[in-house]
Amino acid sequence: MKRQLKRLKSIEIQGFKSIPFQHPLKLEFGDINILLGANGAGKSNIISFFKMLGFMMSGNLQRFIAEYGTNQKFLYYGAKKTPTMCATLRFEAQSFYDVYSFSLTKAVPDRLILTTEEIEWQHGNKDCYSKKTLQSDFNESALVNATDVTEKEIRNLMGSCKVYQFSDSSISSPMRQASAVDSAHYLQAEANNLASFLYFLKNNYHDSFRRISEYVREVVPQFHEFYLEPERGYMSLKWMDNSANDYVLSADQFSDGSIRFIALATLLLQPQETMPFVIIIDEPELGLHPYAIDMFNEMVKDASKHAQIIVATQSTAIIDGFSADDVTVIERNPDIQGTCARKLTEKEYQDWLEEYTLSELWNKNIIGGRPI
After folding, report:
1. Is-contact 121 129, C-beta < 8 A?
2. DSSP letter assigned to residue 155
3. Which residues contact 333 (CB under 8 A, 6 or more apart)?
4. What is the per-residue pLDDT for 183?
5. How confident is the model at residue 158 (pLDDT cuts 50, 70, 90)?
């Protein structure tokens, strides 16, 4: 059973990066959501939107804009063509729903400011419906300092949409570095605190830690167990192999694919008490062996019992691990010069799927999502 009653039902985005203002991108979400598309189709821009949302809900919108670009980068074909972007997110559960809408508008110099924020909700019968315009200071969301119960709930729902990217597995990557032991109550976006979080799970959620170790053994044959001992308040990711000696290895002795898989296993096999409500993963297939991808698919299905999973991918092995109902094709439409989306259904491709896999239909361009 899912821990939360409400789930992310849909988003609508206008004027953000490759999404035209006059042709909104509409996405419907289920428990498992595979975003499939070619390079340049706009998958990463959808991921970027969720990342921006996370910064907004923590009061760091202006920091996000300063770190990741200017208003020219975030607005469709720049601020001159698209001065404003808008978005609406809807969370639902039976007769309950919460809606958050906002718009960002260009400002000097190269900034984006919040010009509108609205929330709408219905909690039970029609008499419990309400709609409210929020008053922000333009720089940050009014929800950040919300004291109203409903506003806080909506903020928490949106703040629980967490983006994870484990593409950097270099020797200097965050996931290979030591991290503070007291930073370990949740897994950070780039697995910056991977060692500390594993140590936290080992001490507090033994079953989850055991399962993570078992999956890692399946994919990394020489792995025996993690060796997690704090040193002066910091934790390094150390481990022991299955040889007869007691030599302790360091994080830089994991291959790129191995450490990425460890981060994915830790994310998807953590206990439901620490798991975000919506987990967004960008291109998890990078550097993974085909068998590791099979294990990833299995972990996604397991995690979807407690959270919604959104995966942006180009992996044939990933899409073949799921139903057509789980797949949304992301394409760049030349007619509108922007990103569009189409959710697949098993019924629509029932006859095709009797003879072909989803990846074969993708390669044949039957379902779309191929370079144009």
Report:
1. yes
2. H
3. 23, 339, 340
4. 78
5. very high
pLDDT band at 338 (very low <50, low <70, confident <90, very high): very high
| Mean residue pLDDT across the chain | 93
Each residue's pLDDT tens digit, 191-250: 999 999 999 999 999 999 999 999 999 999 999 999 999 999 999 999 999 988 889 999
Q: Tokens representing 140?
A: 């940050």
pLDDT of 137 above 70:
yes
Cα-to-chain-centroid distance, residue 372: 27
Is 1-160+323-372 a CATH 3.40.50.300 domain?
yes
Listing DSSP states for 206-256 in one string gives: HHHHHHHHHHHHHHSTTEEEEE---BTTEE--EEEESSSS-PPB-GGGS-H
Work out whether strand 179-180 and strand 234-235 pair parallel, antiparallel, or are unpaired.
antiparallel
Spans of all domains in the chain: 1-160+323-372, 166-278+300-305
DSSP-based three-state secondary structure for 371: coil
Tell me, what's the pLDDT at 371? 65
67 or 13: whose pLDDT is higher?
13
- Separation CA 51–CA 64 (nearest Å): 9
Residue range 346-363, pLDDT digits in tens: 999 999 999 999 999 999
Alpha-carbon distances, residue 269 vs 35, 197, 216, 233 (angstroms): 21, 12, 11, 25
CA of 93: how far to CAs of 8, 81, 97, 184, 252, in Å? 9, 38, 6, 31, 45
Pairing of strands 96-107, 223-227: unpaired
Cα(178)–Cα(193) distance, integer angstroms: 7
Tokens 């930073």 label which residue?
183
- Count of CB atoms within 10 A of residue 20's CB? 20
Cα separation, 183 vs 206, whole angstroms:
19
Q: 203: which residues sit within 8 A by CB, 6+ positions away? A: none
- 143 class by beta-carbon count within 10 Å (0-12 exposed, 13-18 middle, 19+ buried): buried
CB 260 within 8 A of CB 166: yes
- Tell me the CB-side half-sphere exposure of residue 38, using CA atoms within 13 A: 15
Confirm if 223 and 217 have CB atoms less than 8 A apart: yes
